[in-house]
Amino acid sequence: MKKIWLSVALASSSLFLTACNDDHDDTSVIVIDDGIPKYDISQPLVVTPENYTLSNMTAVAGQSVKMTYKMLGVNGSEVQATSLLFTPKTAPPITGWPIVVWAHGTTGVADVCAPSKAPLNIYIKGMIDQLLAAGYVVVAPDYEGLGEPSENEAHPFLNLQSAAFSITDAVVAARNYLGNQAAKQWMAVGHSQGGHAALGAAQYASRAQLDYKGTIAVAPASNLAAILIVGEEQAAQETDLESKISTFAMLDTYTALITAGLRNKNPSLTYQQVFKSPTDEIAALADTECSDVLSESLVAAMGQYAAGNGWSLDAYPRTQSNFLSLPEVSQFLSKDSQPLQVKVNQPVIIYQGGADAVVPKDATDLLLSGVAAKQSSIQYHADATWDHGTAYVLNIPNIVKDVQSLMPIQ
């Protein structure tokens, strides 16, 4: 199986690189040293933070607020962004509370899918409770394009730089709001899409011009082309119809979210170029609905088709045969979405489950086999019994200990 993953990755890279270019022509920001644009937003906090009351944090948090501020968007201009911010009940140390960024998993690309618009997941709340009790500020950004209905912009799903700037700019906004109550030390923790974002923060940490201490990434998304290609092959061989539909729906959900996010920078890209009819109409729900509704709609359509075709998905119209080679898609898959393409300077800790069907362990193994990853300081914790959810849930106590080890309270 590992040989299959390696061969798919190599083949997809050679295909996609023919369409790649270094199209980073932003001239509206200051670029120094490592080529990463440094934080230069004149009004980082543009709206007074509002209380976040959807989850009861009063027992452990001194403040629970939703910030609205400016960040540097994927198109090179400043856009409004939102983030949750929680502070400990205890007094800050002399140097201020260190900051932990929580990078959330996939919710969708439509504004309504912003995590700040919903109560905290019970496990996420539990982790935040522990971090607050240990003396850390927790910042939880929505990511670019989520949380601001006034901005007619889709979330650039799994765009590494956008995800990284969503994190760095939220940290700077939090420090501007908290003043000397916040320290310069910070780090990122994320799961799934958030693990991908946390690895992006490691690569682009210098943008914040603060003291970055490290990254904890659980089942981080990477090698998306290989995941799509190998997943397609494995699903096609699946004999259980329910499992086949479930896998195809998952793959098509992520493809739809990728397409929706790409339309931010490439408005001429259409769902019809990526999906066959009538699946293109379902995929277009990504513009307005969250990932769970999108997935359920795809499952329902495939189930209805199978029921009328001898319980078979043969000839079911899903994706276009050539969509991976579309220039916008190939650029994104081969470069714009891939973490750990350069050496990172601070420690990275990765947790990965061998039973993960969303981000397969083979994808993470392949990520860590790269030259840049080998040059970086990375601890890799893998367990054959963890799936996509339990790799995070079962390791929350370890994640908190990791934070305390990488960024002890001064």
Your description of this structure?
This protein is an alpha/beta fold and 410 residues long. 39% of the residues lie in helices and 18% in strands. It is built from 14 helices and 9 strands. The longest helix has 22 residues, at 241-262.
Tally the beta strands.
9
CATH superfamily of the largest domain, called what?
Alpha/Beta hydrolase fold, catalytic domain
Number of helices: 14
> Which parts are unreliable, with pLDDT below 50 for 5 consecutive residues or more?
15-32
A few lines on this structure:
By secondary structure, this protein is α/β, with parallel strands linked by helices.
Key attributes of the depicted protein:
single chain, 410 residues, alpha/beta, Rossmann fold, 2 domains, nine-stranded mixed β-sheet, 14 helices
Architecture blueprint of SSEs:
Layout: H1 2-17, E1 45-51, E2 61-72, E3 78-88, E4 97-103, H2 122-133, E5 137-141, H3 160-178, E6 182-191, H4 193-204, E7 211-218, H5 224-236, H6 241-262, H7 271-274, H8 279-283, H9 291-307, H10 327-336, E8 348-353, H11 361-368, H12 371-375, E9 378-383, H13 390-393, H14 396-406
Parallel strand pairs: 4-5, 4-6, 6-7, 7-8, 8-9
Antiparallel strand pairs: 1-2, 2-3, 3-5
Helix pairs in contact: 1-5, 1-10, 2-14, 3-4, 5-6, 6-9
